[in-house]
Design a protein that fits this description.
Number of strands: 5
Mean pLDDT: 77
Distance between the termini: 43 Å
Strand order of the largest sheet: 1-5-4-3-2
Strand content: 25-35%
Helix content: 25-40%
Shape: globular
């Protein structure tokens, strides 16, 4: 239990500025993934496991270039909590991808 508390504190201390922009904070993994899929039309782009066993997932809407990063922390008792630690726009897989142009004025946004 101490490890999950430490992990949660670490996550929030690192990502606290980004949490102000995230639309939601923490809930079950199903609730958080359904939120970004249903409300932002984002799909799972990548999955990674941290050295301390957390699950990091990036969800992306390639049409709008919006993205969300979810981090799931697992407790010793099997419980898990998932948090949106950051979100934004202008997501690209690599730097050679051209930005999406704004339809109104042709400017990249």
């Amino acid at each position: 239990m101490k490890s999950i508390l430490f992990s949660a504190i670490l996550i929030f201390s690192i990502f606290l500025p980004q949490l102000a922009n995230a639309e939601s904070a923490c809930s079950t993994h199903d609730n958080m993934t359904n939120f970004v899929i249903e409300h932002h039309n984002q799909q799972l782009e990548s999955v990674a496991k941290t050295y301390n066993g957390q699950l990091v997932e990036t969800f992306v809407n390639h049409k709008t270039t919006t993205w969300s990063v979810l981090v799931t922390t697992f407790a010793d008792n099997g419980q898990k909590i998932t948090c949106i630690v950051s979100d934004g726009d202008s997501y690209y897989r690599n730097f050679s991808t051209k930005p999406v142009e704004n339809e109104e004025n042709g400017d990249p946004t």
